[in-house]
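Figure S7 source data.
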Amino acid sequence: MADIYNFKEAEKKWKEFWENEKIFQFDPGSKKKIYSVDNPPPTVSGKMHIGHAFQYSQMDFIARFKRMNNYNLFYPFGTDDNGLPTEKMVEKMNNVKSKEMSRKDFIKLCLDTLKKVTPDFIQDWKNMGISADYNLYYSTIDPNCQKLSQKSFIELFKQGEIYKKEFPSLWCPECQTAIAQAELEDKEQESLFSTLKFSCEGKDLLIATTRPELLGACVAVFVNPSDRRYSKLIGKRAKVPLLNFEVPIISDESAQMDKGTGVLMICSYGDKYDADAIKKHNLPSKVILNKDGTINTGDYSGLKIKAARKKILEDLKNAGLIAEQKQITHTVNVHDKCGVEVEFLTTEQWFIKILDKKQKLLEQGKKVKWHPEFMFKRYENWVNGLEWDWNISRDRHFGIPIPVWECKKCKKILVPEEKELPIDPADIKRKCKCGNIAEPETRVFDTWQTSSITPQIIFSLVKTKLELPCSLRCNAHDIIRTWDFYTIAKSLMHENEIPWENMMITGFITLGGEKMSKSKGNIIDPRIVLDNYGADALRYWAASYKLGEDLDYQEKDLVAGKKFVTKLWNANKFTFMNLGQYTNKKPKKLNKTDEIFLNELNKIIINSKKSFSEYECHQIKSEVDGFFWRSFCDNYMEIVKGRIYNGTEEEKESAKYVLYNSLLSIIKMMAPITPFITEEIYQEYFKNNEKDKSVHISNWPEPFKIEMGKENEKIWQKLVEIIEKVRKVKSEAKKSMKTEIILTLNKEDRKLLDECLPDLKAVTCSKNIKEGREFNIDFA
Ligand SMILES: [Zn+2]
Ligand SMILES: [Zn+2]
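Tokens for the predicted zinc ion complex:
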């Protein structure tokens, strides 16, 4: 028996044990009800981050709880390796630019890099004690996922849910690809708000803008029909400063009179508003932006947006065409993958129809049980705010190819047969019915096109027939609008079902109240935390916070977790020193103190099941934790010590039974949260009597068959109150706890504690417990 618990040795040992003994393996032959976990596959980025550690722990608490409650766990593990995030990692690690390499070479480099980094990456999840079935593994770029993703596309295309269209859509000039609305992030930015001198019939017409570099793309100016200042100008033409071409002055109610000068310049395209306005008035577009973020107009050709802005402002200033200028702070849309301001570009893209399904998508979202409930609101807001269909095509190299060919002659779109999948249309020549050779699509899917079918992907990993909805999905709130939304949309379109019955939504991790970010340098590396405190302590920390709330990382929480682990180890070591080779024989009669203690334990057992069933892990962690420290260690263990040595055989039997079983219950209730220490203790002390191979496949504790009641609760509370009072008096008098006393209780208390007096006498070292007017202690 080891004196000190060495978490590093223990974690290594139990990880191997679980793997070798296949403790977490899905059992296709089992008669038990299946509980399926759709683990959101983390993006292979080389390293697990602390947010992952928190989020996957939350999900694992529930998985382990369900496993111990007679469910057959279906809990595969995947990694998300396709698309932009992976490209970015590969570019950075290898110091290359994908656009400067051939598609084939870059894909090869991506696959090679993934092969190198993925095993280590997955190891982080194993080290955290995440109890997934790692044999049921998928990568979103593997052939099976490619096949399913392409199949989904073809099905939706045939259903008329997918279309290809050329129109101004969101474009990232940095990543040089179209992006989706869900990839936008707001960013506060300082900008120069310049009032420019347009003119109309020789008179100045002032227009304020933050984007003077788009002057060359100006196609109209808008004024509000009820704006008296400008109503005479409607129908006339305005001259664009510096460039001197003319554009129509149009009446449009969307021009706000109180914004800037009340006159609006419409460019193709400054933003979504411009795109809509141009479409509404059927204006010709004049695109001056290139895909790489450079401008192609006059003297500014070849300059990047910001450089063009600077130069044109200088020229405007020199020509006396700026009436006023001020610095403002405003919110701009940036691409979430690179932080660069997004633009609008007219390109041809593939879209999945979602705008026509808003109502249905809201209904589906409502059918899912959100934990916490208020997170549904975020989903609802997102769906209500949708402005575009879902753009699924990306102008990148590494991703799943869009499986189509297009005949340029008769405009027919050709799709492959299901049995041909996965396919890269660029590799295969396809002839159109008209006899013409069709051209392959060379772009790839947006990652969400594939990540949105993880329920269908995990189902494909086994022969067992599984059906939607999965039991559980857990992720942070920032991907409700992407991952969760798209998955709900896909399950609706393919199966007319919801993807998951339950969703657990976690918050962000902050440090000193600030969001962690690489640029701020305030990142906590979970590997270092694991090394210093162990996985149990890290999970214990993760269980300390309410679902959905952002949580602040504090070292003291890890210290508390480590202390708990040590205390649990010591409590067991001490108990079994006294129990010896105890065989868990049920006593003929329970001692009163043991009974009232079991009454307390029963309350915790009942609550634990309730809290876990309601996905409230923090609740049960704090209850079991509190019960263990105060009721069990501080009081019950102290109370029964004397009886185990000096009691009659019957009294000893009762104490041993309750000690053994209460510890076992605590171990089991904490097993989902701190799986390593509980396994160590189970194997070391309980395994001989209990039949289960691992604590993690043992049954959840059942309440003990005793009469539960308020009276028992009252006696226990009083007993603890008196013991704690005696301790306080002794400690204040600077006496040893073993100092003998004469204890006086009032009549009522003494009567209440009647059956527990022998235990109370022993634990307080009282020579005598007298009845008197009030509580009193005399040192003997
Ligand atoms: Zn970007
Ligand atoms: Zn054709």
